[in-house]
Design goal:
By secondary structure, this protein is α/β, with parallel strands linked by helices. Helix content is 44%, strand content 14%. Strands 1, 2, 3, 4, 5, 6, 7 and 8 form an 8-stranded mixed sheet that branches. α1 packs parallel to α11. The longest helix has 22 residues. The protein is globular and about 55 Å long. The protein starts with 7 loop residues before the first strand and ends with a helix.
């Protein structure tokens, strides 16, 4: 059995609205004051991880469930009007600054390292970005990390075009190891044994034409994800990582809008987080 040490890392997968599972896990962690010195997070994992880093329980849950019902921020209208199927004005402006203000002071005081993964459109490679001074840059990185290809606009960070970190590094366990964290807890948003059976992202010639390396990364996305899942399951079997994942069959997809399904997945995440804390965080 793994023992949590000071150099233990926390890895948070993305997954769109499946991220409510992660928000449940992290709320359980906060309930038991289970914190890590290093967190690396992708896409929805990055958005949920911000509330964990600012020590704001149930804030991510409110965003993923209650706010979705109230503001209906997933829509084709948003895609047509703002260039993103997830309304960026609500999620990255009104939510952190007005609806449920993000505690920037608590986040900035937190000594833990928090890296958000993005994909550089020019190189097709992952970048691991952190920010502990500029509130606007924090929000911009989170937006870039969650900018799904084809249904979100490219987000510029420091002048560089970025999209969803899950394109290049969906489960960044290797990054955590390379930064000096040989022991890691990984929060996934899919069941054990899951493999992507999606069709390859064969990008039409008229999309992302100025970013040929991004097009290659998109074409390889499913293979990269499945290879990482296989590696992770081997590491889990060898006792090199602890994995927290949903136990029930998937019923929530990336853009799920059903509050009952989302609530069930959140509660499952909270329950799995409680189980972990009972074994490791007491």
């Amino acid at each position: 059995m793994l023992k949590l040490e000071r150099n233990t890392g926390l890895v948070l997968e993305g997954g769109g609205m499946r991220g409510v599972f992660t928000s449940g896990v992290l709320d359980a962690f906060m309930k038991h004051e289970c914190y890590f010195p290093y967190v690396v997070a992708v896409s929805a994992g990055a958005c949920n991880g911000l509330s964990y880093m600012s020590r704001q329980p149930r804030r991510a849950r409110y965003s993923n469930i209650d706010m979705l019902q109230k503001y209906d921020y997933i829509s084709l209208r948003s895609l047509l009007v703002q260039g993103s199927i997830f309304d960026p004005n609500i999620l990255y402006d009104r939510f952190p600054n007005e609806i449920v203000p993000f505690d920037y002071d608590a986040y900035l005081r937190n000594p833990a390292v928090f890296e958000m993964v993005t994909t550089n459109c020019q190189t097709g490679l992952a970048e691991y970005l952190t920010e502990k001074r500029d509130p606007q840059r924090i929000s911009t990185i989170a937006k870039a990390s969650s900018s799904l290809p084809f249904v979100a606009q490219i987000t510029y960070v420091d002048g560089k075009p970025m999209l969803d970190g899950g394109i290049a590094d969906p489960i960044p366990v290797q990054r955590a190891i390379e930064t000096g964290h040989p022991v890691n807890v990984v929060v996934l948003t899919k069941n054990k044994g899951y493999r992507s059976t999606d069709l390859d992202y064969t990008t039409p010639r008229f999309i992302y034409t100025e970013y040929p390396r991004l097009r290659v990364a998109l074409r390889r996305l499913n293979d990269v994800y499945n290879q990482q899942m296989e590696m992770l399951e081997r590491m889990e079997a060898w006792g090199e990582v602890i994995v927290i994942r949903p136990q029930r069959p998937l019923e929530v997809d990336r853009i799920c809008r059903d509050p009952e399904k989302l609530e069930r997945l959140y509660e499952e995440g909270f329950s799995e987080g409680e189980k972990f804390c009972a074994g490791f965080c007491q």
